[in-house]
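Re: your question about CPNE7 protein

S., sorry for the slow reply, the queue was backed up all week. Below is exactly what I fed in.
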Amino acid sequence: RATATMGDTPEPSPQAPLAVLSKVELRVSCRHLLDRDTLNKSDPCVLLLMQSQGQWMEVDRSEVIKSNLNPVFAKIFTVDYYFEEVQKLRFEVYDSHGHAGVGTHDDDFLGGMECTVGQIVAQKRVTKPLFLKYGKFAGKSTITVISEEISGNNGYVELAFRAKKLDDKDLFSKSDPFLEIYRIDDDRSEQLVYRTEVVKNNLSPIWEPFKVSLNSLCSCEEKRKLRCVVWDYDSRGKHDFIGEFFTTFEEMQKAMGENKVQWDCMNPKYKIKKRNYKNSGVVVLLDLKIHRVYSFLDYIMGGCQIHFTVAIDFTASNGDPRNSCSLHYINPYQPNEYLKALVAVGEICQDYDSDKKFSALGFGARIPPKYEVSHDFAINFNPDNDECEGIQGVVESYQSCLPKIQLYGPTNVAPIISKVARVAADEERTKEASQYFILLILTDGVVTDMADTREAIVRASYLPMSIIIVGVGNADFTDMQILDGDDGILRSPKGEPVLRDIVQFVPFREFKNASPTALAKCVLAEVPKQVVEYYSYKAFPPRCPQPDTPDSNLSSPQ
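Result:
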């Protein structure tokens, strides 16, 4: 970010359009780096690599910080962020040798760390140990990565300023004033936020209203100091200083509605020299309008957890699990389609759930002890706690449950949708954006209870939840497309439309020969939009992030 010099012709800076794609800024620091140099300390530099098709590719590198084992790098790494992908990052720290640049010899390697963009975004701040080759710790070395979204989607503010009775700096005419607003950053440097147009020959100018993002104006911190400067324009670039004042966005907000806020425009030199000096004019904020626009990352970084539930179809049409033709056959060398779909989607979701516990349910089977048909049983057979530890826990519960149940029918999914909806309804009552629910239904056929399912989906569309249905096997899934509202609006049997489209249906066979990431990408691509739509409809802002502690994950849901 370049701070504009006074020689620039004052023209309003163009405002960046709201980005569709999220971009994330990563700031890096290290502590207790290894000392590789004999006479002085290491000169560290960080390389950022991203995995692409199994290969690590260098994305960018930081500056070199001379002789420092606890460097805080000024370089800001910017990466594109996709919720529906696992984006693997690797940070490598090297000791640099002047003109030779950054060597990649083992002697110069100070340590590396791997993580995903999702983990950094969910935790906001990640501190991890650095490792040398072969998994050996690099002494006590650690690396800290802090993330901040820069999509500009955190809202913008519209401001309208005027001034009165400004000092006249021109000999034969009146001043030609313009106003500049600077944000004062934590390191006391100043960043130009906005420069108004010049109003010619006028000591009481009214400037055109303008819009700036809250991120740009005050880094979304209402108490951050702002410096506002009024200049008399000079065509040769030697603008005359009229005066300045300091304020905050918090103070500016008093100008909402009919109120106005005003500041004395002060020239510090005159204040010292002139005994009766009052001011060099007054600047008035006539109007302030806030337009808040939240993004998916705002909610995630505010502590919103994604709670993941998987529901597995155990109806007889899957075939006897002991038979190798069955969709539920456990092949020791090759996961079946149910497991492939579960792992592909679950691996993305687990980065956004701090306790890494997933609810795992089954439907359409006769279950012990009485072998009655159930359409919403816990596959770990614990009715009081259907959660499994991580994706691996779900896989293990699935494999151990198969020999204990009898595959039966029919394919009723409304009970499971309603079960998750009850938990989501409890969450909604908190009136906070703290938990959002994703239900993944894996089924081998068209649902039998279509009317009840449509009713349950319409009800669920008012709650913080999304439903992903993956069709496993070779059945004709044409009727399932009706649940995915892409072709039209899904309605309940009574004709009530869904509030928002929350269902994504995909036949697994379309991804059979593709990588698991392709399936996850397809079914999860809509989720960020669905999360934002729900919380926007409810007018729930993101929660305030909890204070960062170096290794803390997201705060637990309330």
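The first strand starts at residue 22 and ends at 31. Confidence is low (pLDDT under 50) at residues 1-20, 546-558.

Happy to talk it through on Thursday.
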